[in-house]
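2024-03-11 09:14:02 INFO worker-7 job=invfold-0412 stage=load source=structure_tokens
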């Protein structure tokens, strides 16, 4: 049964990844690709899309770091509170 839950979680994570990937791709495409008169990707479109993706990756990394910092602070606060509650008066 535990294996099914793990597989289910993996499928859920993969679906979330694909959803995020599709959103980023669509956003960067809509922002950067303007000329549909040629099959070639223009240099400015390519650099725009690369910048767009880099910005997204940096933003995601920064959010993850802040999220970790928040959880560390919350855990420290809980540990301090538990330490105070466990001491006799």
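2024-03-11 09:14:09 INFO worker-7 stage=emit residues=89
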């Amino acid at each position: 049964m535990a294996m099914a839950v793990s597989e289910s979680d993996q499928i859920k994570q993969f679906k979330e990844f694909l959803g995020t990937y599709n959103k980023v791709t669509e956003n960067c495409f809509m922002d950067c690709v303007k000329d549909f008169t040629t099959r070639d990707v223009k240099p400015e479109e390519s650099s725009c899309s690369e910048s767009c993706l880099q910005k997204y990756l940096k933003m995601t990394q920064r959010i993850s770091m802040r999220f970790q910092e928040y959880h560390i602070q919350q855990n420290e606060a809980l540990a301090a509170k538990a330490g105070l509650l466990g001491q006799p008066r």
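2024-03-11 09:14:09 INFO worker-7 stage=report msg="The chain is about 85% helix and 0% strand."
2024-03-11 09:14:10 INFO worker-7 job finished
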